[in-house]
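Notes from hallway chat w/ T.B., transcribed later so I don't forget. T.B. wanted the structure written out for a chain they're using in a teaching module, and asked if we could keep both sequence and structure tokens in one place. Agreed to drop them here.
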Amino acid sequence: MANTYSTIVFSGGAGGVFKDVNLAINSGSLFFLKNVKKLGWHNETYFVDGVDYEYCFKSYLAGFKIAKYSGVPSFDHESEQPDKIITIFGKRLLIRKYSKARVKDSVHSYFRLLYSALRLGDFKFLYIFLRSLMIYVFGQLLARLL
């Protein structure tokens, strides 16, 4: 596993499903130390989630995968957050209103990630980052309207 994955992210839920993911919030994760050293650790110049997403992108570029294991009782990044849960078009969304400064810093980090993907010609992650940015902005707009 350590030769294939840089990180295993744990979350709550039933079933104990192990699957590969493109992006993950890295809090509560298992890092393979030798792979983190190869990747150059986390880049603290990114803001909050941008640190995690940049790390996932570096993992992908280096040929590593990120795994998510659901089924760890009482160990879930999402359930520990003070989110409001809404359903739109049959999709469950977690909504939390962040400060304007945090939104600004997060959007700035997203633009840095988009630029990196574009500069490297990685259209897969360009799409992933753009989609994630749109979801984030949409969520912040909803949080202010609801």
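Follow-up for T.B.: The first strand starts at residue 5 and ends at 11. Might be a good example for the class.
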